[in-house]
Amino acid sequence: MLAKRIIPCLDIKDGRTVKGVNFVGLRDAGDPVELGKLYSEQGADELVFLDITATVDKRKTLAELVKKIAKNINIPFTVGGGIRSVEDANVLLESGADKISVNSAVVRNPQLINDLADNFGSQFVVVAIDAKNVDGEWKVHLNGGRLPTDLNLLEWTKECEDRGAGEILFTSMNHDGTKQGFENEMLAKMSSELSIPIIASGGAGSMEHFYDVFTEGKADAGLAASIFHFKEIEISDLKKYLNKKKISVRI
């Protein structure tokens, strides 16, 4: 059985780590280079860096900042934000990223998933999906959750897998920053329909929530931000807890 992964996420705005609730009300959470180094030392399995305003501001991800973080960590590093082409992805790969995360650009141009997978391999391509439950229907949202679409969440995840995505990073906008637990029902559905790994995001507030997302939600990885940034939970303590609960994690 593959070990479950614990992944801290650095949401970056103007070169700083930020965190909000339901994608709004952002507050400063620290220096991304220092945080990345800390999480690497604490035993995080991977690190995710999302330049959350790159798509909105129509600019490229901060490649220089990516280089600085990559030099200070020794764990797999996923970078996203403003990637609209194979060339954009290549810049990040050369800056130290191990994988890239694409979101709004591939909804607008799904062929980009195929192109990225063909050029770099599926394992390099993470499709991030921000979705919201609106009147009982899960709809994909773009531009950091600002722009609703008519795209059905499950249908889109299946298309992403078919086009060559190596992983899905699903953030429930309803749960983001609430610390009330992950969206386990939808995660379990997703897991039953896809064969690629699923990273759960949105709602982590306690160690129990990670246990639940791995057992009830069937997720392959649990991603969180504020509980790690503000030292509510230490990654090493979380892994010890999960290990005691018989969840396979790398200690």
Which helices and strands occur, and which strands form pairs?
Blueprint: E1 5-13, E2 16-21, E3 24-30, H1 32-42, E4 47-51, H2 63-71, E5 77-80, H3 86-95, E6 99-102, H4 104-108, H5 111-120, E7 125-134, E8 137-142, E9 147-152, H6 153-163, E10 167-172, H7 184-193, E11 198-201, H8 207-215, E12 221-224, H9 226-229, H10 235-244
Parallel strand pairs: 1-4, 1-12, 4-5, 5-6, 6-7, 7-10, 10-11, 11-12
Antiparallel strand pairs: 1-2, 2-3, 7-8, 8-9
Structure explained in plain terms:
With 251 residues, this protein is α/β, with parallel strands linked by helices. It is 35% helix and 28% strand. The chain has helices spanning 32-42, 63-71, 86-95, 104-108, 111-120, 153-163, 184-193, 207-215, 226-229, 235-244, and strands spanning 5-13, 16-21, 24-30, 47-51, 77-80, 99-102, 125-134, 137-142, 147-152, 167-172, 198-201, 221-224. An eight-stranded parallel beta barrel has the order 1-4-5-6-7-10-11-12, surrounded by six helices. It is globular, with a radius of gyration of 16 Å.
